Amino acid sequence: MSNYHIKHLEEYYQVYRKSVREPENFWEEVAEEHFMWQRKWDNVLSWDFTKPEVKWFEGAQLNITENCIDRHLATRGDKTAILFEPNDPKEAAEHITYKQLYERVNQFANVLKEQGIKKGDRVCIYLPMIPELAISVLACARIGAIHSVVFAGFSSTALSTRINDSDCKMVITSDGSYRGAKTIDLKGIVDEALNDCTCVETVLVAKRINSDINMKSGRDKWLQPLLDHASSDCEAELMDAEDPLFILYTSGSTGQPKGMVHTTAGYMVYTAYTFKNAFQYKENDVYWCTADIGWITGHSYIVYGPLANGATTVMFEGVPSYPDFGRFWEIVEKHKVNQFYTAPTAIRALAKQGLELVEKYDLSTLKVLGSVGEPINEEAWHWYNDNVGKKKSPIVDTWWQTETGGVMITPIPFVTPTKPTYATLPFIGIQPALMDENGKELKGNQVDGRLCVKFPWPSMARTIWGNHQRYKDTYFSAYENMYFTGDGALRDEVGYYRITGRVDDVIIVSGHNLGTAPIEDAINEHPAVAESAIVGFPHDVKGNALYGYVILKDVGETRDHANLRNEINQIITEHIGPIAKLDKIQFTQGLPKTRSGKIMRRILRKIAQGDTSNLGDTSTLLNPEVVQDIMDNVL
Ligand code: PRX
Question: Would you say the pTM of this structure is higher than 0.85?
Answer without folding.
Answer: yes
